[in-house]
Design goal:
The protein is an alpha/beta fold. The protein has two domains: about 5-275, Type I PLP-dependent aspartate aminotransferase-like (Major domain) (Aspartate Aminotransferase, domain 2, 3-Layer(aba) Sandwich), CATH 3.40.640; about 280-410, Aspartate Aminotransferase, domain 1. It has 15 helices and twelve strands. The protein has helices at about 5-15, 35-45, 60-70, 85-90, 110-120, 135-140, 165-175, 240-245, 250-260, 265-275, 280-300, 315-320, 340-345, 375-385, 400-410; strands at about 75-80, 100-105, 125-130, 145-150, 175-180, 195-200, 215-220, 305, 330-335, 350-355, 365, 390-395. The strands form two sheets. It has a seven-stranded mixed β-sheet with strand order 1-7-6-5-4-2-3, sandwiched between helices. Strand 4 (about 145-150), helix 7 and strand 5 (about 175-180) form a beta-alpha-beta unit. Helix 4 packs across helix 9 (about 250-260) and helix 11 (about 280-300) runs parallel beside helix 15. The longest helix has 21 residues, at about 280-300. The chain is globular, with a radius of gyration of 21 Å. The structure holds pyridoxal-5'-phosphate. Pyridoxal-5'-phosphate binds near residues 155, 183 and 213.
Length: about 400
C-alpha cells in the first residue's frame, strides 16, 4: 500500500457521519445558549466541554481540527481564518517584546512581511537563513530565541530543508520549531521529524478548490518530564502548562492569541475545507507525479525549470531521500525577462493567473511584479526572485496537455 492510500480511508471515514446527515453539519451560530448559570460557569472554567462562543471554538471547526490533528499525529489543532492567521496564532502565542525568531528557507511573502514589518514593530526580531546554513543558524541562537520557523519547501525558491537536522538543532537548544507545511501535507510529517507545531494555509492543497480561505495550527503533546517548554526560556507559559498538562499548547494558543486577536475560523469555511480534504489523498499523489513529468519535459525542451526532481537541482539527493512523497504542487520557470514572462502568461490557455497555489487547476504568476513588487533588490535576491520568474502550481489536468500548452506559450 502506498503512503497516500492510508489517508483515503482515514479522511472519508472521519469526515462523513455514520448516523443522520452524512455530510458534516454546519453550525452557523456565533453564540451558544448555556441553559443555566451553573453550566455557563462550568463552560467558562473548562470543566464542561461545550461551545462557549464561536471566536473560541465552533463544533464544525472542531471536527476539522480533529481531522487535521489526526493527519499529523498531533494532540490537537486550532483552525484559523487564513494561513496567515495560523502563522500569527502560532507565533504570537509564544513571543513577547524582546524575543527573537530564526526563520529558515522559503519564504512565503506574507510570512516575510509578518516578520519584517509587523513583528518588528513590537520589538520581536527575526533573522533569516538559507536551509543549508546550519552552522550560522546554530550560532544565531541566543537566550531570547523563542522560535525557529521553517518552511517545508521554499516557496518559490524550491530549496528543500534537512528537516531532521534543523529539528535536532532546535531540540538540542530547547527551542520551539514551527514548520509551515502548507505545500506538503501528507508528504511530510513535521511532528514525526521533531517539530513542535505545524502551520497550514488550508486555502491551498488541503481544500484544493479555491472555495474557502483558512488555516490550521497543529500541536504536539507536552511531555511529563524534560519538556523544553518547561524550561526557564518559556517561563511565561508555565502557569498554563501546570494547569492544562500535555495538551497545554492548545489553551496557550487560545488564551494568548485567538481570544484577543480573533483570527478564528468560520463554520462554513471549515465545512468546505473538510469537503476538499476528503479527496486530498487522491489529488496530491497525482499532482506530485504530474509536476515531475512536466518539469522533466520542459527542462528537456530547454526551459529554465526549478524543481528538485531534476537531477541538476542542488537538493535532488535530498528530494530522493527525504521527499519520497514529493514536495508539493509547485515548480518555477525562469523566462529570463519580465517581457518574456508576460508573453508566456498572455499565451498560456491553460494556466489561471492568480496568487493562489495548490488548486485543482493549474495556476501561474509572475513573482517580481506581484507578491514581491514591494521588496528591495537584496531581499528579492535572497528569496530567489528573478525578473523572469514565473511560479506554477500544477493542477489535475492531463500532464501532457500542460506540457503542450506551456511549450507553445514559451515559444
Ligand atoms: C498561502 C500561504 C500562506 C498564507 O496562507 P493564506 O491562507 O493565504 O493566509 C502561508 N504559507 C504558505 C507556504 C503559503 O503558501
Amino acid at each position: 500500500m502506498n503512503h497516500f492510500e492510508n489517508y483515503c480511508t482515514q479522511f472519508v471515514q472521519s469526515i462523513g457521519n455514520k448516523e443522520g446527515a452524512v455530510s458534516p453539519t454546519i453550525t452557523n451560530s456565533a453564540s451558544f445558549g448555556y441553559g443555566t448559570p451553573e453550566i455557563a460557569e462550568g463552560i467558562f472554567d473548562g470543566s464542561i466541554k461545550k461551545p462557549l462562543y464561536s471566536r473560541m471554538g465552533n463544533p464544525t471547526t472542531a471536527k476539522l481540527e480533529s481531522i487535521i490533528a489526526a493527519m499529523d499525529g498531533g494532540i490537537g489543532a486550532v483552525a484559523t481564518s487564513s494561513g496567515m492567521g495560523a502563522s500569527s496564532l502560532a507565533i504570537l502565542s509564544l513571543v513577547s517584546s524582546g524575543d527573537e525568531i530564526i526563520s529558515i528557507g522559503g519564504l512565503f511573502g506574507g510570512t516575510y512581511a509578518l516578520f519584517t514589518e509587523t513583528l518588528s514593530r513590537f520589538h520581536v526580531k527575526t533573522s533569516f537563513f538559507d536551509v543549508d546554513e546550519l552552522e550560522n543558524i546554530q550560532n544565531a541562537i541566543t537566550q531570547n530565541t523563542k522560535i525557529i520557523f521553517l518552511e517545508s519547501v521554499g516557496n518559490p525558491n524550491m530549496r528543500l530543508p534537512d528537516i531532521k537536522a534543523i529539528a535536532k538543532i532546535a531540540n538540542d537548544a530547547g527551542i520551539v520549531l514551527i514548520v509551515d507545511n502548507t505545500i506538503t501535507p501528507l508528504s511530510i510529517a513535521p511532528l514525526k521529524l521533531g517539530a513542535d507545531i505545524v502551520v497550514y494555509s488550508t486555502t491551498k492543497i488541503l481544500s484544493g478548490n479555491s472555495s474557502a480561505l483558512g488555516g490550521c495550527v497543529v500541536f504536539r503533546k507536552i511531555q511529563e518530564k524534560d519538556d523544553k517548554l518547561k524550561t526557564p526560556r518559556y517561563k511565561d507559559l508555565h502557569k498554563i502548562i501546570d494547569k492544562a498538562g500535555k495538551a497545554a499548547l492548545i489553551p496557550i494558543a487560545k488564551k494568548r492569541a485567538l481570544r484577543d486577536l480573533g483570527m478564528s475560523a468560520n463554520a462554513q469555511a471549515s465545512y468546505q475545507t473538510m469537503l476538499g480534504m476528503e479527496t486530498l489523498a487522491l489529488r496530491l499523489p497525482r499532482i506530485v507525479q504530474s509536476v515531475a513529468t512536466v518539469a522533466k519535459a520542459l527542462d528537456a525542451a530547454g526551459l529554465k525549470i526549478n524543481h528538485p526532481s531534476l537531477a541538476s537541482h542542488p537538493h535532488h539527493k535530498r528530494y530522493v531521500s527525504d521527499f519520497q512523497n514529493g514536495c508539493g504542487t509547485l515548480l518555477t520557470i525562469d523566462m529570463g525577462t519580465k517581457e518574456k514572462a508576460f508573453k508566456f502568461l498572455n499565451t498560456t490557455k491553460l494556466a489561471t493567473i492568480t496568487a493562489n497555489i495548490g488548486d485543482s487547476r493549474t495556476l501561474a504568476l509572475h513573482m517580481a511584479s506581484t507578491i514581491y513588487s514591494d521588496f528591495d533588490t537584496k531581499t528579492k535576491q535572497f528569496l530567489g526572485i528573478t525578473d523572469g520568474l514565473i511560479r506554477i502550481s500544477i493542477g489535475l489536468e492531463n500532464p501532457q496537455d500542460i506540457i503542450d500548452d506551456f511549450l507553445n506559450a514559451a515559444k
